[in-house]
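call fold target=Gliding motility lipoprotein GldH
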Amino acid sequence: MFTSCDPNRVFDAYQPIPNKWHKDSVVSFNIKVPDSTNAYNLFVNLRNTNAYKYNNLFLIVEMAFPHGKTVKDTLEYKMADPSGKFLGTGLTDVKENKLWYKEQVVFKEKGNYIVNIQHAMRENGKVNGVIELEGIIDIGFRIEKPSKN
């Protein structure tokens, strides 16, 4: 069920991955943060189909700050349980995944931030990366206000 009222959402955007996600293809998001005092939770969102053949996903996520600093993280996410069933939500063959990136982030610099996301998948036992990753159809980035309990 989708609702248009999401009080925690600050930024939420997707970009489609046409056909296969090439290892050199970088998905970018240009983000103007609303303030430099509050803390936010950051997520990488993605949609995958049954064509995705791995139980995990390695991503390189880079955040460029307005004044030139960059932070780059290599992240691993679990995509399927031990039986091979995908962990995302959805009743069709498309699964939605909301993956933690960082929590309680304060954007201390005013201005635009750029988030770049690239896959870093490899086959087991192989040195070279997967050239074209199948089954990922959308990559997104989300910023939320922390939930109040």
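return ok
The mean pLDDT is 92. The domain at 25-144 is CATH 2.60.120 (Jelly Rolls).
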